[in-house]
Amino acid sequence: MPSPGVRVSVVISYHLDGRHLHQAVSSALHSSSHETEVIIVNDGATEAKANLYLRNVRELSPTVRVIEQKNLGLSAARNVGLAAAKGEFVQLLDSDDMLAPGKIDLQIDQLTLQPRLSASVTNYLLCDDNGLNLRRDGEGIGCYDLSLDDFLFRWERGFSIPIHCALFRRAPLARIGFDGATSKQDWIFWSHFATEGRRIGYLPIFGAIDRLSPASMSKSFADMASAWMAAARMIAPLAGGRADEFMVAADKHAKDYYQPRMAAQGEETVHRHAPAPATTPIDDWASVARKRIPPDASPLISVVVPVFNHINHLPQCLTSIIGQRANGGVEIVLVDDASTEPGVHAMLEAFANAVPGVTLVTNATNLGICRSLDLAVAAATGEYVAFLDCDDALPDGALALVAKYVGPEVDYLFTDRYEIGEAGEPLRLARYGGYSWIHPSTDIRADLLDGMVASHLKVIRRSVYISAGGLDAAYEGVQDWELALRLSENSRFFYLAKPLYINRRHSGSVTVSDQVRQFWLTNVVRRRFSRSSLGRVIADDAAVAKGREACATLAAGNVPPDVFVMRSMRKFSDTQKLKSAWQDGKLCVYAPDASAMPAEFCIAREFNSYFDGILAPDEVSATYFVGYLWRRDALHLTADLVELNCGNRTGAS
């Protein structure tokens, strides 16, 4: 029986693609206004950052819980989640996919009005791995009857229903469950569902987003063909007297669709370029350390390096520090945050034993970047602390130049940086944080509000860092920016316009692997500091309530008074208009029309912290903001507010 108080259970299976979990969970929370529980089944995820991803999404809502199990496969994970679900309705979701805002609410309305339906399905969109480009997948679901014939003879031949398009009543879903014998479990499930005569209602909205990740696009067509035929043999008995006809049609699809792609994929594999060789670890640190000058008891600069894996890049990082010079030498503090890659800790120990002036701190469990850096700074003895990531490096002579500029008038020095790729290939020279639209001004606090300009290399007076309380783990991912904004209130900043840092950009780095969550935190942080920097008086709760009223007024075709309405946002400099509106005491609302391009949404969502309300013309437009919003209830759909206005007018009459 459904549990009192829980209307909807969202079951998310997770084994890979944890970097998308934040957006998946955020979309689930944004899709329902009912009492909703989110159950994440960790199906033995082996990603290095799996625990971090899960820890972060738990913090999104107290309704999020995680079930741990060994890797048993997608079907088993779904079945475990179903067994734990308490809601009257169940929404299934993979960790790399999304739901459109309001999807579940609309489907509950449909299922409530039509009690004979066992499930409601919506149409869906495809998106790229970054979630930037949304597009339709052919004609979609709406032109089919959702009959047994559709599932038997048209599946993958113009027709398919990604499982997250559906909202199910829990009882019939739990009765059927999922078969884990093949990767085509959705086809098997839907065929059983239709065979039982279950009624499926179609809701004509784009309610689900199917992400085409690199992993899904690189699957073996030979494996998929084998899984297709295995699933067909399992489904054939459901066709009754048409089983032979069904198998002939299934075999034809395998030959027409999979075989040509198998041949093309095999040819591509033959001609694929060889991967770049990994960095060779250094075995003899003592010989490398001969060029090192041991630091004094009270060095000017301590370099702190938080380490979590990255064994391929770690030797270059460590080697780049050894030859650095500064007054009193350079102290090195390493923190191994319970690295899971074999050989990392042994390399750090060998380095610490062979190189003078090195302190190695070892965390028994993974504490995260904020706590690790706080421990490193506490262990350091230098007057200043230079921060270096373990997959990055320092150019020769970097700290000797820094030493010339730090002094009594400098609490926080920052520089430009070189950016390189995975294999060390040059990408760009990033000046003043790397933002093309931010230029150095005399007001560092104002510049920081636009972006983290005071980034790599950053060198902070140790006493200032400690007095500020160090890093705030609540903002892990943008913790350095939050600290810079805090320090900018009273500390003295100095910009050294020289590239004194080498920043490696690759899929395993935090800035690449967890971008959506970082943008969300960026907006949370900017909203917080904008209030004091721009002199805003109105509290956030009141601003969001008034923002909703303004959006309702706009949806009714009227213009709200004392509100700055941003109709388009096509360049980053448009943020200055929003900052001016805040300074003038106005509310800010973003209300694009349906013709707005994705590039505009990308800018608007990066700076959505300035908006007290966002009026999306449709669910597709709203989807661009999922996971990015400084506050979920700031987003509204035009159709919802039009319906609300009509209801209010009806009630008034």
UniProtKB/TrEMBL annotation:
InterPro entries from the UniProt entry: Glyco_trans_2-like (IPR001173), Glycosyltransf_2 (IPR050834), Nucleotide-diphossugar_trans (IPR029044)
Protein keywords: Transferase
Domain Glycosyltransferase 2-like span(s) in chain numbering: 9-175, 302-465
A Pfam entry, by short name: Glycos_transf_2
CDD domains found in the cross-reference section: Glyco_tranf_GTA_type
GO molecular function terms listed in the Swiss-Prot or TrEMBL record: transferase activity
Protein name from the UniProt record: Glycosyl transferase family 2
Organism: metagenome
